[in-house]
């Protein structure tokens, strides 16, 4: 037992010496024998005090106030949800068993939905590239950046269903209206994400290209785009998955895809068919997610 204590004392002795030396470096005695704090500790304490400022306290109070106000406005009532959860369970039971009697039709509609997602995303990615560059503060002047950002804001703010209604009036019922709706809305989303990626680039490669006497377009092509391609690819694949899900409900307004069958089944209270359509959508989304992950790993 004594040997064990001696062993730990031997191990801990250097740590004790280091701690005492550390304290002696930060706390010294003045001529009156009083302990005073060194300049290093005083600087650390000053920095710590600067972290808690009046502005930050006011900001925290404002955030708490916004959360309370939004809670009241949202009429959140989790107790009511638990109390009436049985009704929801009974409603979900009516969806089973699923009715796959028209599975071939549902599969064809799902293929149309995925095709809408593909082209809506592809067109949006192409349009978002120049718009994102124009919306980046480190590339363009403010008189170009601000109008471009407001345009992207408008594209994002309006839902795909509203755009689909507009294009249905223009081109008629069918998937083409859905593709155009996805294209406009997704351009706003990708333009915002792409511009944030451009603003986060390293300035070194761009300055290196500029030093060779390259033009502004060449700076963008050779200095900016190679840095943001991985992020742009990841954002585009993610939005493709989201667009497939969004395309599945555009059929409600006649914009084609599986949404037409889904809406008709809901209207006729044929919940077995609704369940079958939802199962097919879940399987399609899972397959797309798997393929997108492999593409992301391969390209990025």
Q: What's the helix and strand layout?
A:
Layout: H1 2-26, E1 27-29, E2 35-37, H2 39-51, H3 54-73, H4 78-83, H5 85-93, H6 103-134, H7 142-157, H8 160-171, H9 175-199, H10 203-211, H11 216-250, H12 258-267, H13 271-299
Antiparallel strand pairs: 1-2
Note down, in words, how this protein is organized.
The chain is mainly α and 300 residues long. The protein has two domains: 1-27; 103-299, MetI-like (MetI-like fold, Orthogonal Bundle). The chain has 13 helices and two strands, in the order αββαααααααααααα. The chain has a two-stranded antiparallel sheet with strand order 1-2. A hairpin with a 5-residue loop joins β1 (27-29) and β2 (35-37). The longest helix has 35 residues, at 216-250. The protein is globular and about 75 Å long. The two termini are 60 Å apart. Mean pLDDT is 84; it is low at 1-26.
């Amino acid at each position: 037992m004594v040997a064990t204590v001696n062993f730990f004392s031997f191990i801990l002795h250097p740590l004790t010496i280091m701690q005492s030396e550390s304290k002696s470096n930060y706390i010294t005695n003045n001529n009156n024998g009083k302990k005073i704090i060194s300049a290093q500790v005083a600087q650390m304490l000053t920095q710590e005090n600067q972290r808690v400022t009046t502005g930050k306290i006011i900001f925290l109070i404002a955030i708490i106030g916004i959360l309370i106000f939004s809670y009241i406005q949202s009429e959140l009532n989790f107790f009511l949800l638990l109390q009436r959860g049985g009704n929801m369970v009974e409603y979900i039971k009516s969806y089973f068993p699923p009715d796959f009697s028209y599975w071939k039709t549902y599969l064809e509609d799902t293929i149309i939905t995925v095709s809408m997602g593909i082209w809506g995303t592809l067109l949006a990615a192409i349009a978002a590239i120049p718009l994102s560059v124009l919306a980046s503060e480190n590339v363009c002047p403010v008189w170009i950046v601000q109008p471009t950002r407001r345009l992207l804001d408008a594209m994002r703010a309006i839902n795909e269903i509203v755009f689909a209604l507009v294009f249905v009036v223009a081109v008629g019922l069918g998937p083409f209206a859905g593709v155009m709706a996805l294209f406009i809305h997704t351009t706003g989303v990708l333009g915002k994400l792409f511009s944030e990626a451009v603003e986060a680039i390293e300035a070194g490669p761009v300055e290196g290209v500029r030093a060779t006497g390259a033009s502004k377009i060449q700076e963008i092509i050779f200095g900016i785009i190679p840095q943001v391609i991985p992020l742009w690819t990841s954002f585009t694949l993610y939005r493709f998955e989201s667009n497939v899900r969004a395309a599945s409900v555009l059929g409600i307004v006649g914009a084609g895809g599986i949404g037409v069958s889904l809406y008709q089944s809901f209207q006729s209270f044929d919940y077995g068919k609704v369940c079958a359509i939802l199962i097919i959508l879940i399987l399609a989304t899972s397959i797309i997610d798997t393929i997108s992950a492999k593409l992301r790993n391969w390209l990025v």
